[in-house]
Amino acid sequence: MDQIIVLRREGKKIHDEAEWLDVDEVNFCTRERIGREYKVVIHTDKGEYIYSNSNDAFFALMGQRNGMIMTDKGMLGNIYKMESVDYEDGKVYFNEEENEYITISTPKKNIVKEYIAKLLKK
What pTM, to 2 d.p., does this model score? Predict the structure, then answer.
């Protein structure tokens, strides 16, 4: 089932916390000026949603999924897809051959170590 990231709208209030919406629940969409820009308003039987293109909302929502962890500002990785971790250089490699990695900030090193250890024990 296809899903999109949305923000719930209640009247004029738009919530900050993103959520998944099944595309099959969409009745229709409109374009509406909200603040200074136009947004897509998604109408469903459960209420109205605003299509979310907020980076912060995206990272917060994805960070709730099992295996996903914020390793640095603007860096989110799926630990189940990693090839290796270099804690000294602060990198999580997803393809060592192609040098594809995300960085681990110094304050997050212990959190990342604990999270990876916990996932690998399962």
Answer: 0.75
Comparing C-alpha atoms, which of 63, 66, 111 is closest to residue 87? 111
| pLDDT tens digits, one per residue of 19-78 | 999 999 999 999 999 989 999 999 999 999 999 988 888 898 998 888 899 999 989 999
Residue 58 structure tokens: 């995206």
Where in 1-113 does DSSP place strands (E)? Answer: 3-10, 13-22, 26-34, 37-44, 47-51, 68-72, 75-78, 84-86, 91-95, 100-103
Local structure of residue 98 (DSSP, 8 states): T
From residue 39, give the alpha-carbon distance in Å to each of 4, 15, 46, 89, 100: 14, 14, 19, 41, 34
Question: 2 has which bridge partners?
Answer: none
The single-letter DSSP state of residue 20 is: E
